Structure formats: C-alpha cells, structure tokens
Amino acid sequence: MRRAIVLLAVGLVPAASAVAQEPDWSRAEPVTVILSSFDFAPSEIRLRAGRPVTLHLVNQGDGGHNFSAPEFFQAATIRPEDRGYLFRGTVELAGHRDKAITLVPRRGVYKLRCTHTMHGMLGMKGWVVVD
Questions:
Q1: Quick check: 107 and 131 in contact, CB under 8 A?
Q2: Radius of gyration for the alpha carbons in the chain, expressed in angstroms and rounded
Q3: I need a surface site. Which of 25, 34, 50, 59 has the fewest CB within 10 A?
Q4: Would you indicate the residue range of the signal peptide (predicted)?
C-alpha cells in the first residue's frame, strides 16, 4: 500500500508542474517602438526573458507599415486578447495608428523588418534581443 501511494505521488508531480502559470500581465513594462518612413526606433529592441512587456507600436508615417518578427512572436507567450492582432508573426499598422501587444519574451535574437514592398531594403529592419 505504501509503495502504491509513493508511485501515485511521483506520477502526480509531473502533471502538477506541467500546468503553466498565467503571467501577471499587469506588471508588463511598456516599450514604445516608432515606425516611420523607413525606420524602426529603436532598431534594436532589448527585452528581458521571462518578464512581461507591452510593445506599443506607433506608426508615425502617412502610409502603412508593419512589425514583422515571426520567430520572436512564435517563441513568446502572448496575452490571449492580443493574439488577434498578429497574422503570421506580423502586426499591421495603417498610417498614424498604433497597437499594443503584451507578451512574455523568450531568450534569443530575432530579426525584425517591415515586409511592405521595398521598406526593408530602404532600411526598415532591425533586431529584437532578449537576454
């Protein structure tokens, strides 16, 4: 009987630890990224792994731009209500619009670019560095 209880307890430990804890979204640090013709400011965004952050993406240009970092978004835990702003790892922004995406980033170095025609070639690219 004692052995059965120990085996049962050992079997429950992985199941209990596999339950993910929901991040405390209220503690997200704000980080503003300006999109303009043809630039991201900053072009290197530095974040801390495992800490919630709200990326406030602001398009200051008249035309549309996007914030495309598919590997970054795929690796991150994104707040459920913000997932709808993403399509294939890209956030689209019409001229003079903004969006806030709250997430918990994972360690890594990720490419960032605007995928609109010629925007990347004209300098609208950068990096998301998560330490």
A1: yes
A2: 19
A3: 50
A4: 1-20
| Beta-carbon-side half-sphere exposure of residue 37 (alpha carbons within 13 Å) | 8
CB 59 within 8 A of CB 86: no
For every residue of 60-114, DSSP letters joined together read -SSS-EEEE-HHHHHHSEE-GGGGGGEETTEEEE-TT-EEEEEEE--SEEEEEE-
CATH number at residue 83: 2.60.40.420
For residue 115, how far is the Cα from the chain centroid? 17
101 within some domain: yes
Instruction: With respect to residue 1, please indicate whether it lies within any of the assigned structural domains.
Output: no
**Would you say 45 and 129 are in contact if contact means Cβ atoms under 8 Å apart?**
yes
Residue 81 confidence (pLDDT) = 97
The share of the chain scoring above pLDDT 90, in percent, equals: 82
Whose CA is closest to 32, among 41, 20, 24, 23? Answer: 41
Render pLDDT for 48-81 as a digit per residue (tens, 0 to 9). 999 999 999 999 999 999 999 999 999 999 999 9
Q: Is residue 18 part of a domain?
A: no
